[in-house]
Design goal:
With about 300 residues, the chain is an alpha/beta fold. It has a single domain, classed as TIM Barrel, CATH 3.20.20. It is built from twelve helices and eight strands. It is globular, with a radius of gyration of 18 Å. Pathway: Amino-acid degradation; L-proline degradation into L-glutamate; L-glutamate from L-proline: step 1/2. Pfam families: Pro_dh (PF01619).
Length: about 300
């Protein structure tokens, strides 16, 4: 119940234009902006610099241009063009060719046809440049359209795409069946959105139990699954399952957020596991930042403590 209230409260705050305007003055200010620990910056040059720093530590990375729920087809086209411009910049920088996108950023609220067209354009360009594209999963109203559009791209031969599934959503275990049947790569997360009890597990114990059930199947049947978690219990469970089944550490990877548990990222890497860091950037950083705070009440204190430790 506390987790649900936290998500609801921070979800509301994330939509506040007044708070966003105030935060924008200070969040990205120099090196001391309070959001810079978790968001690389507002521009592609800053994201590339962050990616180089991450890779210098032996970690992998994926870049995400923040933005979602655009209000018009014009904005969706602009976001698509931004990704098309991002791809050659990443290639020229000689960093890992891995990006993440959201379909509401590409016009899914306007229509699935618009989002699907933009997704196809990005995937085709990314395919030509040997990029992998992860389509992030948004909240429950978008799940079916997201899966349908990604599947359509896959059947058109654009197989340089993967998807994200959230263990908090009750439907995700059956969605895993349809994605595994294609051989598509899956990123498994718990989920950061406030959802109704009819659609989502409400307690941490239930979300964790669903995560473990999906984890077991992914490690047994998935193609290079991405285990996205900062939860030591879920990490330990992943290591236990992999060890029991004789699965090589190179057969999967852990994924974590930029600026979160850097000590744990380094420890997993030293233990021989692959770790990919999700690096967000862009002017629309505020909703993302607020969702990170709302995932669980302890995150607020964690953010404050993180500003003075683990540097």
């Amino acid at each position: 119940m506390i987790d649900a209230l936290s998500k609801a409260a921070f979800g509301t705050l994330a939509g506040s234009t007044t708070l966003k305007r105030l935060a924008s003055r200070y969040g990205m200010r120099g090196d001391g902006g309070f959001a810079r620990r978790f968001v690389a910056g507002e521009h592609i040059d800053e994201a590339i610099a962050a990616a180089r720093s991450v890779e210098a530590q032996g970690l992998s990375q994926t870049l995400d241009l923040l933005g979602e729920s655009v209000a018009s087809e014009v904005e969706a086209s602009a976001a698509t063009n931004a990704y098309l411009e991002m791809i050659p910049r990443i290639a020229e920088a000689a960093i890992g060719r891995n990006i993440s996108i959201k379909l509401t950023q590409l016009g899914l609220d306007q229509s699935p046809d618009i989002a699907g067209r933009h997704l196809g354009t990005i995937l085709a360009r990314a395919h030509d440049e040997a990029f992998f594209v992860r389509v992030d999963m948004e909240n429950s109203p978008y799940v079916e359209d997201t899966l349908t559009l990604v599947e359509a791209a896959w059947h058109e031969g654009l197989t340089n795409v993967g998807v994200v599934l959230q263990s908090a959503l009750k439907r995700s275990e059956s969605d895993l069946d349809r994605v595994l049947a294609l051989g598509m790569r899956v990123r498994l997360v718990k989920g950061a959105y406030k959802e109704p009890a009819s659609l989502a597990w409400q307690s941490k114990a239930d979300v964790d139990a669903a995560y473990v059930r999906m984890l077991e199947r992914l490690l047994a049947q998935g193609r290079f699954p991405a285990i996205a978690t900062h939860d030591p219990a879920m990490i330990a469970e992943t290591c236990r399952i992999a060890g029991t089944s004789g699965l090589a550490a190179s057969a999967f990877e852990f994924q974590m957020l930029y600026g979160v548990r850097r000590d744990l990222q380094a420890a997993l890497m030293r233990d021989g596991f692959g770790v990919r860091v999700y690096i967000p950037y862009g002017r629309e950083w505020f909703p993302y930042f607020m969702r990170r705070l709302g995932e669980r009440p302890a995150n607020v204190g964690f953010v404050l403590k993180s500003l003075v430790r683990d540097r």
